[in-house]
Amino acid sequence: MDIGTIWRVWLPLIAGVCALGEIFRFGPGPYGGARWVGLVLGLIGLAGVIVARYTLGRSFSIAAKARALVNNGIYSRIRNPIYVSGVIFLVGLALMMWNSYVLLLLVVIIPMQIWRARREARVLEEKFGDEYRKYRRRTWF
Fold first, then answer.
1. Rounded CA gap, 50 and 56, in Å?
2. For 39-64, how does the pLDDT look when each residue is reduced to its tens digit (9 = 90+)?
3. Residue 40 structural domain
4. What is the CATH number of the domain that holds 47?
């Protein structure tokens, strides 16, 4: 395992699990079923982000770039698993904390992620053409 994998995958995973555990144990909101569902969704969302980030490897970038067409692993089913997983994570966080403001944050984040996904799709389509269009037809978001 290289140092890049440790920084990209393992440290964020450990930090995220610790943060979710702390929020679950000490955060605001009632302790009940919704908190447990929120924890599960938070963990699923965190795992999705980490798996997607690992799968991208060195192809990850903040700005839309077409280094490689990654279509294996989680990317074989979902074109933008980091965005989808991030939303799942935030829904889980909102349930754990029983906080509607976190859900309102989704009203801003979801359209932003759709806009970013469309911009990335244009960049990938320009670079990879038909290969990307075929990939797009067989995957979700």
1. 10
2. 999 999 999 999 998 898 876 665 66
3. 3-137
4. 1.20.120.1630
